[in-house]
Amino acid sequence: MSVDATPITGEATIPHPARRLPIVGDVLGINIRTPLQNSVSIGRELGPIFERSVLGNRFVFVSGADMVAELSDESRFVKHLAPGVKALRGIGGDGLFTAYNHEPNWGKAHNLLAPAFSQAAMRSYHRTMLDVASELVGYWDKHSSNKHGSNSPVDVSADMTKLTLETIGRTGFSYSFDSFDREEQHPFVKAMIGALSHSQQTTFIKSTAVGRLLARRADRRDDVRKAYMAEVVDEVIRARRDNPGGAHEDLLELMLRAARENDPNRIDELNIRHQVVTFLVAGHETTSGALSFALYYLANNPDILAKAQAEVDQIWGDEEPPFEKIAKLRYVRRVLDESLRLWPTAPAYGRAARKDTTLVGKYPMKKGDWMLVLIPSLHRDPLWGNDPEAFDPDRFLPANIKARPAHMYKPFGTGERACIGRQFAIHEAVLVLGTILQKYTIEPDPGYQLKVAERLTLMPEGFQLTVRRR
């Protein structure tokens, strides 16, 4: 690919793809279904910083470890809602993920909900996580054996979505979606996937008057999805208010109790809905993707699979694991980390300058200028060692982590707006991977080539496994 460059004020230029067209910009070769993977491919050619202009919208992508380290400095930079995330405000409003920095409900909700992700809280969720993992096992036992006595493949991504939705529903809101009692996707999941895909695919189109006109029909369909999601969440909240008894100590109780007790961090009823939607979507969509990618790499690397399974056998044996034994699966955790390195399921985040500054001494930024950290490219920086495309859990051995520069691993974002549920997601994912390895041998479809679906988050598409009881 040949390279053009756009001069900017200062000593450096930011490259962009060749063949930039008038008005529409860098649209040649774009697939609206895979814009993230398109950008990763462009970054391989143009380097650790480049720009794309699409229908008058300028995007600067960054993946160099030195640049990301500076962008992670909270004294100089702050979270920026990139267009794809901003489009989700129709779902999440001023919830934790989609709030602007100046909106007060973000800080209130963060202070209010932080105790729900403490070590003590994780311990309280453990039993529910085990129960949901057990339901997955029962579901797979039922669906992996056909009437002829042979094994049928299971739909990994769909089933991980069932599991993670059920887990966040029960632990966060004491509400069951009955995910393993239905053959089809829960309508909430279908509406959510549609809303996420719509946000991604129309972000650029709706930047022009013509595009907004063309998107009207799709917008109307999306309004129906959003209304349904709000209705489901309102039912979750209503069910609790109608039955306030019981020893609920979950996310919903923290929010409702704060309102009852006039807590300084209380949030209003609409924002409670926004927070519930945020956790239902973000709390299961990214973790289901992480589990699916981890299972893909385990199934396709027999030596790594055998080592992970041996660790589970040694530490858990045939017993149901207590809370303390989840973190002891250190190799399984490295498998998860390496999966998130190659395919971080929340693959980009925006950072804006708090004041006029210069990035790595080369790229001037005015106050409010923003850049997108392209995490899959950051996670393939040459500083990761030989063949960054290869799957190698030992990259996360303690000695290797210490030897790398800081800020090279960002699957949960950065700074004060980083993912509040990180420890929840890690505990759940390691527990589920351990349970699957304890119960099953897994075999890939030899003809399957990894295809990554984008709906703002990333997920293997069409990925199936054959699972057999050990």
Total number of beta strands: 14
Task: Report, as a whole number of angstroms, the end-to-end distance.
Answer: 50 Å
Radius of gyration: 22 Å
Structural class: alpha+beta
SS strand fraction: 5-15%
Count of domain modules: 1
Oligomer: single chain
Query: What is the residue-mean pLDDT, rounded to a whole number?
Result: 90
* CATH class placement: Mainly Alpha
Q: Please estimate the helix content.
A: 40-55%
Task: Name the CATH superfamily assignment.
Answer: Cytochrome P450
Largest sheet geometry: 5 strands, mixed
User: What spatial form do the alpha-carbon principal axes imply?
Assistant: globular
User: How are strands sequenced across the largest beta sheet?
Assistant: 3-4-10-7-5
Our count of helices gives: 17
